[in-house]
Write a structure and sequence with these properties.
GO molecular function: serine-type endopeptidase activity
Number of helices: 5
Protein name: Serine protease
Pfam families: Trypsin_2 (PF13365)
CATH topology of the largest domain: Thrombin, subunit H
Number of domains: 2
Keywords: Hydrolase, Protease
InterPro entries: Peptidase_S1_PA, Peptidase_S1C
Structural class: alpha+beta
Number of strands: 15
Distance between the termini: 92 Å
Length: 341
């Protein structure tokens, strides 16, 4: 009876050891870059074959051999699963890259939250900017005058549930920190604020557009082209992974022509409050050949819904049209500035 009890305890110990190994192996593999997974699988097969040869030439029971083959198969499946998950992670990164350009903006006056909006990252000559609508930072018509904003930034490329909130002041010594522009028709409803990248949360993970995303590359936009407006309508988003959502849209006015002499074109899309400052994008036809993580052309910055003052609210539906300011204004807003003497 005593020997049976000891044998049972030993079996339980071995099961516990195997479970611990099962937990350790995936952790070790996940710590390795995906490019190493295939080499690890080949090495495991070589060592398993060597162990198999030793056991076949030793006085070992068939039960041990069966258990060995079973565990080799199990380990092989773990290796294969990790390799596949690594491949999925690469695809996941590619699929979410464009969503990582955009961040949710909350405006504040002191400690009081005022409104929500959308913004996106834009990089030029090593400088990083947050772009959005000018009316997000200051809106005289809406009596909206925040003194700071908060944005959300991911902090783990593999675990998108991890993020940090970063506060950005809008004024220093009484002077506004954002950059805005005007043209012959007046103020352009696009603004940028430069971010000190070294002050962002540690291990910040995001994607940024740059001047190459403004290029047509021989694919001139035309009326009716399919677009994506990526943002946070009414603040709605994936609250677990802190990712924006994309609304489908199309070009609704002659692209390249200032609609009613304003610096924007029209889009046909369902949009809501909170979408202000969203990037308006067109998927490139040659995206599969593009080595960039962002295979999109940045056409505009969504600003506001366009409607008719004479519309009968009881009989007529909303037009469903929106104004998107031409994105090339970003090159003006992000021009390098000479330091003040």
């Amino acid at each position: 009876m005593k020997n049976l009890q000891e044998a049972t305890e030993r079996i339980c110990q071995l099961k516990g050891s195997l479970i611990a190994i099962d937990a350790l192996l995936p952790a070790l593999l996940e710590a390795q870059p995906p490019t190493r997974h295939a080499a690890l699988a080949r090495s495991f097969e070589a060592h398993a074959e060597a162990a198999r040869t030793v056991m076949l030439n030793a006085a070992i029971s068939d039960h041990v051999l069966v258990a060995f083959e079973r565990d080799v198969a199990r380990m092989r499946s773990i290796l294969t699963g990790i390799g596949q998950s690594g491949q999925r992670a690469d695809q996941h990164d590619s699929a979410t890259a464009v969503l990582m350009t955009t961040t949710r903006i909350t405006t504040f006056l002191g400690q009081s939250a005022l409104s929500g909006a959308s913004g996106f990252f834009f990089r030029r000559d090593g400088a990083l900017f947050l772009a959005t609508n000018r009316h997000v930072f200051s809106d005289e018509k809406g009596n909206h005058f925040p003194d700071r904003i908060e944005i959300e930034v991911h902090t783990d490329a593999q675990n998108l549930t991890r993020y940090a909130v970063f506060s950005i002041p809008l004024y220093r010594n009484g002077l506004s920190l954002w950059r805005e522009a005007a043209d012959s028709a007046g103020v352009v409803d696009v603004a940028v604020i430069e971010l000190e990248e070294g002050r962002l949360p540690a291990s910040s993970v995001f994607q940024a557009f740059d001047s190459t995303h403004l290029e047509a590359r021989g694919e001139d936009p035309a009326i009716g082209d399919a677009l994506a407006v990526i943002g946070f309508p009414l603040g709605f988003h994936d609250t677990v992974h802190h990712l924006a959502v994309a609304r489908s849209a199309s070009i609704a006015s002659a692209y390249g022509i200032r609609f009613q002499q304003q610096g924007y074109f029209l889009t046909d899309a369902r949009t809501h409050r909170g979408s202000s400052g969203s990037p308006v994008l067109r998927r490139r036809g040659d995206y599969s050949k593009d080595g960039s993580a962002l295979s999109w052309q940045l056409l505009g910055v969504h600003s506001t819904r366009i409607d008719m003052l004479t519309r009968n609210l009881m009989e007529d539906e909303s037009l469903g049209l929106n104004g998107a300011w031409y994105a090339d204004v970003l090159m003006t807003l992000t021009e390098p500035r000479q330091p003040m003497l």
